[in-house]
Write a structure and sequence with these properties.
Blueprint lengths: L9 H13 L5 E7 L7 E8 L2 E6 L7 H9 L12 E6 L5 H13 L9 E7 L3
Antiparallel strand pairs: 1-2, 1-5, 2-3, 3-4
């Protein structure tokens, strides 16, 4: 289970929750985390069915090996030939959308960027 969200990350966690709640089960969301260190960092999620969600953290150029190790220690599955991003499959219940946000915030923090340096751009798609 992810750690509690630090206060400086709460507004980003809320945006993640809103994206998850506003995307239909037939759709997906992508959230770009525009920042100076990793300008191509993004997270995304889609539903496998009404009870499970698939979440991913993008692979960034020049990411430190220690960041990748941290992601894997946090339970994110490493990329492979078929799946280019770190990923997880979680049980989904909209009353616990905060858990999805907690997983994402924990992963984003592994990149050692601050919340104030992230400029979110949310994209919701209602069909896969």
């Amino acid at each position: 289970m992810p750690a509690q969200i630090p206060s400086e990350w709460e507004s980003i966690a809320q945006e993640i929750q809103v994206a998850a709640l506003n995307t239909a089960v037939e759709g997906f969301f992508i959230i770009s985390l525009g920042n100076e260190r990793y300008p191509d960092l993004y997270i995304q999620g889609t539903w496998n069915d009404e009870e499970t969600i698939w979440i991913e953290v993008a692979q960034c150029e020049d990411v430190l090996e220690s960041t990748l190790t941290t992601l894997e220690a946090l339970g994110w599955t490493a990329p492979d030939d078929d799946l280019p991003n770190h990923h997880k499959e979680l049980n989904w219940d909209e009353t616990q959308s905060h858990v999805i946000a907690e997983h994402f915030i924990e992963a984003i923090r592994a990149f050692n960027i601050s919340a104030e340096d992230c400029e979110l751009e949310v994209s919701l798609e209602f069909e896969k």
